[in-house]
Design brief:
With 446 residues, the protein is an alpha/beta fold. It has helices spanning 62-65, 97-102, 124-137, 150-161, 177-185, 197-211, 221-227, 229-237, 254-268, 288-295, 307-319, 339-348, 358-371, 377-392, 413-421, 438-444, and strands at residues 5-9, 17-19, 34-38, 92-95, 110-114, 142-147, 165-171, 189-193, 214-215, 245-249, 277-283, 352-356, 401-405. The structure holds pyridoxal-5'-phosphate and zinc ion.
Amino acid sequence: MADAAYQKCINPACGSEFDCGQAMFKCPACGELLDVCYNWDSMNVPGKLSEFAKRWGTRDNKLDFSGVWRFRELLSFCKDRHKVSIGEGQTILQQNDAVAEYVDMGSGRLYLQYEGLNPSGSFKDNGMTAAFSHARMVGATSSACASTGNTSASVALYAHSCGVKCTVFIGSGRIAFGKLSQAMDYGAQTIQILGDFDDCMRQVQDVCTKLGLYLLNSLNPFRLEGQKTIMYRIIEGLGWEVPDWIVVPGGNLGNSSAFGKAFGELKQLGLIDRIPRMAIINATGAETLTDLVNNKKLCWNDGKVDQSIIDDYYADLTARNFSPHTCASAIEISRPVNLKKCLRAIDICDGVVRAVPDEEIVDAKAIIGKYGLGCEPASAATIAGLKRLRAEGLIASDERVACVLTGHLLKDPDVTVNYHKDKQGRFSNPPIEAPNNLDEILKLIE
Ligand SMILES: *Cc1c(COP(=O)(O)O)cnc(C)c1O
Ligand SMILES: [Zn+2]
């Protein structure tokens, strides 16, 4: 195909290719996921990653300021005039020795990539800036997504910033209030379905097909192109070196898929000399990936994934009427849409998968809050998972590890308030009640 960027089916037995002017989100030939691929020779990719640093000097240009688009040669699927940016990706890589001590890592070895600093408060903005740029490129006027919360917040924000209508589908019950408040406040039409996230995900795909709406879930391969830049920024934060490990929470598995693709491409382009390993962390109440990879031995197998293992697993979930359950609502997903891309990422990054219980997640979250920048429960699964991997000895104390803190503390105030007020964990820090009397108050100050 002559275009510099094109879409390609991830199934090697199919391998159908399509131009980027179409919004499809599944291969029309075989139903598998699509990738955005590039003819790199025509893309002006810098010879060294450090050359991207020069964009810091020209950040009055909106695209150079964006933490996504300053790496635009690595995700060049649309023209500059289509690109939408509202200042996403101004995030920081924070070395944190106190959290390192909690997980038994050596000092100077643990880094937290805080994606809560994005405009809508989660990493999702990295993907939405790219997906909405593609939406504008194909002339979409209406969009939709299913969401556990953060996708809806990010979609709503980007949709109104570029004049595209949006409808967000959320499940009933378990959505964090901080997130729902954003979708409503940013003016999205919000439809709450009597069902869980997986039900919403199925409905939204049919709605989009029937009404021709632009779909913004991470099935959308353009979204994942934007999410690759989280890895570029980690490398940037390490002085253009790669860490030994990336630790990421696993929900719909868009991030892990995007990260694997990012590293595969950087290695292919000769921009990095080695690929870090990746640990993907589920919550035990939503551990489809962990079960499939660790127990059922599901793997990428050069693209010949054993579909019968997945079908049997999902049939069993259905037969048991299983609904995932964890306080980490952003990863409360039992049928992850990017499963196969994630298997590929595990293959590329020699990845491992673990599941951690909610009690460990909320304790880790309190530690991140006390010593880091705070985060929502799904993000804290990374630290809980890292603690386990250290205890197993799989990660050594002197390896350099970057954990992706995916969402802001204020996204889910209920979990935080309940943990502290109701003394639910080892690090609860409840308010102390005091009489309205100076002497009594003075006695209380530590
Ligand atoms: C969406 C989300 C996740 C899950 O990411 P996937 O790419 O779907 O695996 C994790 N944490 C937060 C805060 C999220 O918003
Ligand atoms: Zn196909």
